[in-house]
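Flavin-dependent monooxygenase, pasting as requested.
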Amino acid sequence: MRTHVTIIGAGLGGLTLARVLHVHGIPATVYEADSSPTARAQGGMLDIHDYNGQLALDAAGLMDEFRGLILEGRQAIRILGRDGAVLFDQPDDGTGGRPEVQRGELRRILLESLPAGTVRWGHKVSGVRSLGGGRHEVTFADGGTVVTGLLVGADGAWSRVRPLLSDATPEYAGTSSVETYLFDADTRHPASAKAVGGGSMFALAPGKGILAHRESGGTLHTYVALSRPQDWFAAIDFTDSAAATARIAREFDGWAPELTALITDGETAPVPRPYNALPVEHRWERVPGVTLLGDAAHLAIPNGEGANLAMLDGAELGKAIAAHPDDIETGFAEYEKALFPRSAEVVAEGNLLQQRLFDDNAPHSLIDMFTEHEQPR
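Structure tokens follow.
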């Protein structure tokens, strides 16, 4: 019986796995490159879905804690024209199945649910190698090592564990976003706050868009999306915030000022986020002693499902290990058998949504998606 599980990566998926294992009395250690839980920002809002992310939290026994994080009203959606006109407006009536929470708060409740010492901070993985017989050695940047018979790569897009299983590497998907924030927007930026509304706002055109979320308080988190080659973004000096902001804003000349202000009035340095993805049908042959979850397994362009899928992966893997504590290979095989088609379906749907956001008929393709009573996934 070798049921001490080594998890690489303390994101939502890795922590969910550790928590579900803990619920079932199975010890785990999570190794994380960050030096502490607050070493870097944890991203913005997440809509946690009743068909995957919430199922994972239920398996983790954390639904009450999750409900305490929900920001009311944030499921509202509006789509605007480049002139600021409201083309579609769907209020949050409280009955939706995709409540919004702050990613950092969700991570906090997962961390607090684990025994002290479960997460080993400041352990950046520099390499992983097979020792044979289903055992692997993980080497850290400080020269330390750990040998494990149960290794899970929950270490994201550029996973150090993935090469044990697959030669696949993420490729640029043709679009990047640039992140900015406005703070205390209802008071200091009222026109932009009114344009965004109470939840999510999409102002779209072919190949580009200004997307924003209302986060906690009066914070507006903006994602300026542009379908441009990587060389185009590389030519912008993002260390010069003013120049970079001006260059991005030029792509939206003539748009309503309350929309362009989401870029030009940004109160944090603009941060480029390239969209990378693994192949939709990414899968691997069973390798004893190791598996993957989350972005390490099925990195996709942003589609609202990444965190939800990672958490569901963690919960399903935890349950599979618990169901076969004396035959982990059977548990891993059952997990992967369900993982591959589940993730491929969601990734394909996410790619379709991304196409509708920025295709030649934008924003009307997205409006049609909502008015046809489809839910983007």
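Note for the archive: The radius of gyration is 21 Å.
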